[in-house]
Amino acid sequence: MSVSDTDVIAALRAGDEAAFGRLVDRLHPSLVRMARLYVSSDAVAEEVAQETWLGVLNGLDRFEQRSSLKTWIFRILTNIAKTRGAREGRTLPFSSVGGDEEDGHAVDPERFIPPDADRWPRHWAVSPVAWSTEPDERLLAGEVRDLILRTIDTLPPNQRAAIVMRDVEGWDAGDVRNELGVGDTNQRVLLHRARSRVRQALEDYFTQDG
Amino acid sequence: MNSGLPEMPCQELVEVITDYLESAMPERDRIRFEEHLALCDDCREYVAQLERTRQLVGVIREQELDPEVREGLVEAFRGWIRSRD
To answer: A with B: how many residue pairs have Cβ under 8 Å apart?
Structure first.
């Protein structure tokens, strides 16, 4: 069941603790994850997310619903996170695709037959190890989940931002382009490299696991 | 049916799957992509893995909140309500 923003805002203004708790349950993990894109540690990301809620409460009586409640809350978050990141001396990481050149391949080129071969150039030499039909229980087990989270954490910042915003948070491409300040093509390149790296980590996992 | 367009080799295909999934591919390449996929088991598996990856990454959003953090925030909410009285 979905409750409209107007109802939620009215409930909060009326002092409804349960409504606030539900909003926190729904958004806080996403806020921490988004904050982590701008600041250097999980602890600071948690602080930024908590500070965001204070900003939400401070602004709530003046909030005019020109955007959705969620969009407004995330805007407060990114403002705080960017300020915090700048204070930590972190430059904003997202402006270009460059700097990730070593990650320029979705798949290790060694896995393909060389381009100058007579037969089947640039076709698979080492086929992907099949795991796509593994049952959900196996893929959603804690171990695989941790592996995915760890792999995302090790991605270059702009790839990490792209996959977190698009695939974890479910933003659309346009919102990601605006937030990252990149064009359409770069947004897709970043997302594709990030997905490719996570896929490779999963393949490695299923290979070693037999 | 074959379009007569040059084949898309596996190594090219793995680089453009997200373009394909986002319908951001020129028509000519889309045809080459689909023709290759129809004939290549390895690439079909690879594309399925990338789509499964996307789906799995989406599932990690479901995360539980530390009860202490939650309680601290609800306490802040109470403080806010009191301050407005």
So the answer is: 126
> In CATH, what is the architecture of A5-87?
Orthogonal Bundle (1.10)
CATH number of the domain at B48, please.
1.10.10
Could you give the CA distance from residue A67 to residue A64 in angstroms, rounded to a whole number?
A: 8
Whole-angstrom distance, CA of residue B52 vs CA of residue B49: 5
Domain A101-208 sits in CATH at 1.10.10.10
pLDDT digits (tens, 9 = 90+) for A122-166: 999 999 999 998 888 888 778 888 899 899 999 998 999 999 999
- Residue B56 near chain A (CB below 8 Å): yes
CB A73 within 8 A of CB A48: no
Q: Is A30 on the interface with B (CB under 8 A)?
A: yes
For residue B4, tell me if it sits in a domain: no
B67 interfaces chain A, CB cutoff of 8 Å: no
Q: Where in chain A is the domain with CATH 1.10.1740.10?
A: 5-87
When divided into structural domains, chain B yields a total of 1
Of B19, B42, B61, the CB nearest to A128: B42
Residue numbers of the domain that contains B65: 10-84
Contact between A144 and A57 under an 8 Å Cβ cutoff? The reply is no
Q: Please check the confidence at residue A49 and state whether its pLDDT lies above 80.
A: yes
pLDDT tens for each residue of A95-111: 555 555 455 899 999 99
Calpha distance A136→A147 (Å, rounded): 15
- The single-letter code of the amino acid at B74 is V
